[in-house]
Design brief:
Layout (H helix, E strand, L loop, with lengths): L8 H22 L8 H24 L3 H22 L6 H22 L3 H26 L3 H10 L8 H25 L5 H10 L3 H11 L1
Helix pairs in contact: 1-2, 3-4, 4-5, 5-7
Length: 220
């Protein structure tokens, strides 16, 4: 994304650091639970998240990046709105559920891509991060039978079922895999100038890691 951006390297680096600080702040606040644990520990986690958020704001404010502050604020608003929808289980369609997850995972990167005048990279990030999250949830569901995402999928698809049958589980897995395949196709169709590391990440995520490793050994 940075190779094709018209932004100066130092400016681009500052924007990326700010985005990472904001993401850390969000992730830190997500660790706060209401399970009745130690109150002081929870307060410290909140303060840690606020610290990262403050560092992000200070970095951009000092450099006069008010437009990016607004953009990231919009992303945080969208992320939090979708988190609330998921938490309160207000999503009525599985397609909307996956769209909410995609927004939560990628909204900050999408805004950064817009700032770099490279919206195609925002679309790439959306597909990549959504696929990664779906694969993690799918693995958890297959391995342990427990997945927050699949639990909500089940409530949408089979609202009256107290316990899922094998066929119902297979139905949910097929639906998830269809979306994973869609994300994979979007990544390969993008044809963006990705570097070697990102190529490896995408290949590994999409199931092509073993083929690449074998080819590397054969050619090496």
């Amino acid at each position: 994304m940075l190779d094709g951006a018209s932004t100066a390297p130092s400016e681009a680096e500052r924007c990326i650091i700010a985005m990472m600080l904001m993401q850390i702040a969000l992730d830190t606040h997500d660790e706060v639970t209401d399970d009745g644990g130690d109150l002081r520990a929870r307060q410290l986690v909140v303060l840690a998240g606020d610290l990262y958020s403050g560092l992000y704001y200070e970095l951009l404010a000092r450099s006069g990046e008010t437009a990016l502050i607004r953009s990231f604020a919009e992303a945080v608003r969208d992320i939090n709105e979708q988190k609330v929808r998921l938490y309160e289980k207000k999503v009525e369609r599985i397609e909307s559920l996956f769209a909410a997850v995609g927004t939560i995972e990628s909204a900050l990167l999408v805004k950064l891509a817009d700032r770099m005048a490279a919206p195609q990279w925002g679309q790439f990030a959306y597909s990549y991060l959504l696929m990664r999250r779906l694969l993690l949830e799918q693995e958890a569901f297959i391995r342990t039978g427990a997945s927050v995402l699949f639990e909500q999928m089940a409530q949408i698809a089979f609202p009256r079922a107290k316990t899922l049958t094998k066929e119902q589980k297979r139905h949910l897995l097929r639906f998830c895999r269809r979306y994973i395949d869609g994300c994979r196709e979007a990544l390969f169709a993008a044809k963006l100038p990705v570097n070697g590391l990102l190529q490896l990440r995408v290949a590994e995520l999409s199931g092509g890691f073993q083929a690449i490793a074998k080819k590397t050994v054969e050619e090496g």
